[in-house]
């Protein structure tokens, strides 16, 4: 009886050991590499940070320009598989959107007597109302005149758009399908550097304009 009980107990222990081994993933025991898992985690974090940085930078740009670029970029670049005609179209798209970001930095808005928002283009004499239906009151003309800081903001907006374009994988794959190691470092560091510098400049010298594509004017 004792031998039979011992055999049953040994069989039970062996069964539980086999069950525990089956519950553990074989690939994790034999083929897992801590270094590869760490690298995958770092890559995922870098990608996540890239998307967050792009979102933050896009907040500094006209929404219409950013939306148009994001919609047309995969089409013009053929999802990164560029032919010569795709490169030409993509270059035109980037240049047009960059020019839009630069020029829209000089636009501003105000509320007329009825409370409706009117948009205009800042000049050295005041604000030229685009639709011409409600001219700016003379007492407010001085605050809407074009200033040196407007050119600084326009240039920074252009640089921020360049950073957003460099974050776009389709654009990068179109112009640099097989980048060298030095170019990869530049493509990784340059957008981040531009984003940090321009963000600091925008915080230090904030704009008071509420132009086309920007938040509505409270005034």
Can you put this structure into words, describing what you see?
This is DUF679 domain-containing protein. It is found in: Membrane. Keywords: Membrane, Transmembrane, Transmembrane helix. With 219 residues, the chain is mostly helical. Helices cover 63% and strands 7% of the residues. It contains eight helices and three strands. Strands 1-2-3 form a three-stranded antiparallel beta sheet, with no helix packed on it. Helix 3 packs antiparallel against helix 6, helix 4 packs antiparallel against helix 5 (84-104) and helix 5 (84-104) runs antiparallel to helix 6 (148-167). It is elongated and about 60 Å long. Residues 1-32 and 46-53 have low confidence and may be disordered.
Structural class: mainly alpha
Kindly report the average pLDDT value: 75
Can you count the beta strands?
Answer: 3
Question: Which descriptor suits the 3D outline?
Answer: elongated
Strand/helix succession: HHHHHEEEHHH
Number of helices: 8
Low-confidence stretches: 1-32, 46-53
Physical arrangement of strands within the biggest beta sheet: 1-2-3
| C-alpha end-to-end distance | 96 Å
Main location: membrane
Subcellular location: Membrane
Transmembrane segments: 88-106, 148-167, 187-205
Keywords: Membrane, Transmembrane, Transmembrane helix
Detail the topology: elements first, then pairings.
Elements: H1 2-23, H2 26-30, H3 34-58, H4 63-76, H5 84-104, E1 107-111, E2 117-123, E3 126-129, H6 148-167, H7 169-175, H8 181-204
Antiparallel strand pairs: 1-2, 2-3
């Amino acid at each position: 009886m004792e031998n039979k009980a011992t055999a049953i107990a040994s069989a039970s222990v062996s069964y539980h050991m086999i069950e525990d081994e089956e519950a553990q993933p074989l690939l994790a025991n034999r083929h897992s590499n801590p270094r590869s898992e760490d690298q995958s985690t770092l890559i995922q974090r870098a990608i996540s940070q890239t998307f967050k940085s792009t979102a933050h930078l896009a907040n500094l740009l006209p929404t219409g320009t950013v939306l148009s670029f994001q919609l047309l970029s995969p089409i013009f670049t053929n999802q990164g598989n560029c032919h010569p005609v795709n490169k030409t179209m993509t270059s035109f798209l980037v240049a047009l959107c960059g020019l839009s970001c630069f020029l829209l930095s000089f636009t501003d808005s105000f509320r007329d007597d009825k409370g409706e928002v009117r948009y205009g283009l800042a000049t050295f004499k005041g604000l030229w109302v685009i639709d011409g239906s409600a001219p700016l009151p003379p007492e407010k003309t001085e605050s809407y005149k074009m200033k040196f800081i407007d050119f600084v903001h326009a240039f920074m907006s252009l640089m921020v758009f360049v950073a957003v374009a460099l974050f776009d994988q389709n654009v990068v794959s179109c112009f640099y399908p097989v980048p060298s190691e030095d170019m990869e470092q530049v493509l990784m560091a340059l957008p981040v550097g531009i984003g940090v510098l321009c963000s600091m400049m925008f915080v230090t010298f904030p704009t008071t304009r509420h132009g086309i594509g920007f938040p509505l004017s409270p005034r």
